[in-house]
Fold this sequence. Notes:
Blueprint: H1 4-27, H2 71-77, E1 87-89, E2 92-94, H3 107-115, H4 121-144, E3 146-147, H5 161-172, E4 181-185, H6 190-208, E5 216-220, H7 229-241
Parallel strand pairs: 3-4, 4-5
Antiparallel strand pairs: 1-2
Keywords: Signal
Signal peptide: 1-24
Amino acid sequence: MFTATGRGCIVLVLSGLLVGCASMHGKSSNSVCTDCESGTCQNACMECESCIAGANCESCNYGCDVKKGSDEWWAMQAEAPVGSRQVYKKGKMWPPYPRPTGPKQQFSHKYHAAHYWPYPYVCQDRAYVRNVMALQEDKGWQRLTTLFDYHFDEYTNELTHSGREQLIWILEEAPPKRRNQIYVQKIVGDGTNAARVETVRNALIELVGVESSGICIELKSGRNYGRPALEIDTIRKAEIESMPEPRINYTAPSTTEED
Length: 259
């Protein structure tokens, strides 16, 4: 027979075990809360009062109101970043450089990240390269659609023959999206710049008529890195004229025959 004191001890022991089990059920990250809607799991999730329902909270089994293995639970796990986690151990952070923290990725998500690596991280690099190439292309077309200083007469500011040919090339040969923007090299003297812009505008009216109203003419600072064809032709002609006649040293053999 058990005394009253003995019964009390047994009750206390059993109560302690039950409380301990409930506490362990609430704190274990591997346990599953299957009846959260009825409120029976509220005591198990007291430590997660500040945790929003369905949030990635480790003490509440990664979301007290989300059943492990459900679509919502997998969606929450998919938000975990790729890579090893930083942990604190023996007074040091391992590794010492910044790394993701929190729960590790699920195995299937690790496989997904490794299978499609380096996507999506390569997208930013590819976009940067495309932007650089687009900028280079745009600068090149700006140069090809620019009327430089040598395209104008030095005294009258009218288009020379080469300048008029360049303007016709822009209107007929350049890609359609590049024909609506023509640049004129900016030089010292506002009066000269304005006169040259007006010259180009009059030439456009003569060549394309009313369509010239949709073509923008803009002054552009910079220099031409080439040179006029006339200058190149003059240099080449001078080179040819100063070229010496070819000479080959030749010594005729002796006509005396030796016995």
